[in-house]
Amino acid sequence: MTVRRAVAEETDAIADLWHAGWHDAHGGLAPPDQLAQRTRASFLPRIPPRLAQMRVTGAVGRPTGLCVVKGAELEQLYVDARARRQGVARELCKDAEARIREAGHALAFLACAIGNSRARAFYEAQGWALAGNKEVLLETAEVPFPLTVWRFEKPL
Asked: Of all residues in the chain, what percent carry a pLDDT higher than 70?
């Protein structure tokens, strides 16, 4: 499996993957106000500024997984439901950790929706540890949305 840079030509396919993955992971956990703001269209403008930090798996135009690194943060990690249990998330996570380490960070962190037990089990299996709860401001089309999340950390 190859982890590669995302390209602008696949923005629509990435938006489809990110939107579906976000709703699959957060649909039953997110507050109604946040759910209403997470339309497919809301993901489109978030992609171009992240392309340089985004890695994907799958053929160009048909991504099976995506991962975004922002500084020391593993900011986004989503895998198409049809590609799960094939090692996609593990490979994207390893790539993200390597990029964070290469950027000079000794500690990586990520935010995870409280109650997302599937993600929690995955991150813990990859060596991440729950460091506690943290309030973050989620990016939206209107104003940032405050939300308390689980913060996971991993020494690199």
From this structure: 100
Return the SS3 of 30.
Answer: coil
Helices (H) and strands (E) in the chain, counts: 5, 7
Domain ranges of the chain: 4-155
Spatial separation of the C-alpha atoms in residues 90 and 122, rounded to whole Å: 8
How buried is residue 16: exposed, middle or buried, by Cβ count under 10 Å (0-12/13-18/19+)?
middle
Strand partners, 33: none
Nearest to 68 by CA among 38, 100, 44, 42: 100
Q: Is the domain defined by 4-155 classed in CATH 3.30.1070.10? A: no
Closest Cα to residue 19, out of 1, 47, 38?
38
Closest listed residue to residue 100, CA positions, set 140, 128, 119:
128
State the Cα angle at 134 between 132 and 137, rounded to 5°: 160
Q: H or E segment at 147? A: strand 145-155
Overall pTM > 0.90? yes
Token match 């089309």: residue? 141
Retrieve residue 103's tokens. Answer: 């950027």
